[in-house]
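User: Here's a chain of 273 residues. Predict its fold as tokens.
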Amino acid sequence: MKKKDIITAEAETVEENNDKVNIRKSVNILKLLPSAVTIAAFCFGLTAVRFALFQKWELAVICIFISALLDAFDGKVARLLGQSSQFGAELDSLSDLVCFGVAPSIILFLSTMYRFNGIGWAACMFFTVCCAMRLARFNATQIANVPQPDWAKKYFTGVPAPAGAILALFPLILFFATDKTCFLNVWFVAFCLLASGALMISTLKTFSSKMVEINSNSALLSLLVISFLVICLITELWLTLSILVFAYLISIPFGPCEYAKLQKREAASEEEK
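Assistant: Prediction complete.
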């Protein structure tokens, strides 16, 4: 073999190795993306606490809302990229506890519940403990990996942590939307804290985002709905959030009813077989 051919072959080998390194780097970046989204949500949750310490209540609630949006996407990003991992699941749970268990309690205690002294702090702790128990139950269910039909995966057991946080903050959202101080009544805030905590640890079947399936036929309509929601959030943030939270509250009783119907339908089909 000529010297020129040897040099050419070595150059091609080096180029191939460089291509492999670049591929590995891109794979590593994709692997980090879901965890990066989770950490971003975690940072917004911590920033909500900072704003609460400076009595910037609106910014604190906005940070919790952004954290909830990011939390809704990190799992979907992981599944889309095929990068789901136990590390990501544990990181997500720790982030959820801080963002949706600890941060809302601090915000509500510093804004209103401090007037109840020890009782107000007890209500805040109850909410945080319920959030921790809800996340622990969810993790235990995931580890057990009990097989279930596809339709059952479209339901949560109890209210998820992000929704529980938004429900607990509902009095502040209503106050921002209406400027009526009656929504900051400590009894109403305490009721929202206790009720949202109880809903998180309940066994009620609630609708999940998996209920919404977008196909090619409904893509245009879905884009229009999303665009309308974004416009409403930009122009009338607190009023839109109030309506969305109220709509979610109305949907909660329908979850167990629909779940029971599907259970009966599946039992009937199994008996026919």
